[in-house]
Amino acid sequence: MGTTQLESVQEPKYWHLKTVLSEALDSDFAVGEVLPNERDLAARFGVARATLRQALEQLELEGRLQRRRGVGTTVAPPRVGVAVATAHHGWSGDGDEAWQPVECTVAAAPAVVAAELDVAAGETVHVVRRIRITHGQAVAAELLYVPASSVPELSAIEAASGPARARSVLRELHRLDLDGQDRSVELGSARADDAKELDRLPGAPVLVVTTRYLAVKVTAAVSVATYRADTCRLTFGDSGALEISHAEQERKAS
């Protein structure tokens, strides 16, 4: 067979530089160390700044580097392990103090979420916002959309908003017996509010995990959780559970 068009394409210069930079990160820099500015790095490796910038962006996508407000580009720590699914049917956060309620408001659900909840467009639902903390680091921000029909015993006398209201909604949800969950994962970009809470720049790569909770064969709630893509790696185990594993495990296995 002849050489295919793909096989004849040479490796881009920035991709080769990415490999060289990755080796340098392992040998010459410590976790959390701030990299020299682009001009100095380009001179060190004898490349154009445009080529260097492409390589740095790729390393950020792979989780080796992270850009921090007011600091610069630093060497990223190893990915932390964060479970995002279980083999049994339960609410995310059951017995897990890592999820911290931040706010609860009443607002119209986005059209896509309203369709999943089978509520009319423009109908208001409870919107609970939570942050997930792992090893002292914010790794995910979640919006949990809950129709009034899922929490009929929720008292209107309780706090109208804030963490207390969020805990009240969650407490009522936990009274439901779940039939199951549907979950999807996709790559996205951090919105301004998520980026601020996750200490990322707007537009940074994130993993969006959408979960539909089923009770009595109807959708009881929909969760949209945004995880830092530079922090997390998704793996699928034999049990079918979806979890985020530590990067060190991948390195040891290779």
Condensed summary:
By secondary structure, this protein is an alpha+beta fold.
Secondary-structure map:
Elements lengths: L12 H16 L9 H8 L3 H13 L3 E4 L3 E4 L6 E2 L15 E10 L2 H7 L6 E11 L2 E10 L15 H12 L6 E10 L2 H6 L7 E11 L2 E11 L5 E3 L5 E3 L2 H7 L1
Antiparallel strand pairs: 1-2, 3-11, 4-5, 5-6, 6-9, 7-8, 8-9, 10-11
Helix pairs in contact: 1-3, 2-3
Question: Which structural traits does this protein have?
Answer:
254 residues; alpha+beta; Arc Repressor Mutant, subunit A; Chorismate lyase; 2 domains; 6-stranded antiparallel β-sheet; 3-stranded antiparallel β-sheet; 7 helices; disordered C terminus
Provide an overview of this structure.
- This protein has 254 residues and is of the alpha+beta class.
- The chain has two domains: 13-75, Arc Repressor Mutant, subunit A (Orthogonal Bundle); 82-253, Chorismate lyase (3-Layer(aba) Sandwich).
- Helices cover 27% and strands 31% of the residues.
- The protein has helices spanning 13-28, 38-45, 49-61, 111-117, 162-173, 192-197, 247-253; strands at 65-68, 72-75, 82-83, 99-108, 124-134, 137-146, 180-189, 205-215, 218-228, 234-236, 242-244.
- The strands form three sheets. Strands 4-5-6-9-8-7 form a six-stranded antiparallel β-sheet. It has a three-stranded antiparallel β-sheet with strand order 3-11-10, with no helix packed on it. A two-stranded antiparallel sheet has the order 1-2.
- Strand 8 (205-215) and strand 9 form a beta hairpin.
- The radius of gyration is 22 Å and the shape is elongated.
- Mean pLDDT is 79; it is low at 1-9 and 237-254.
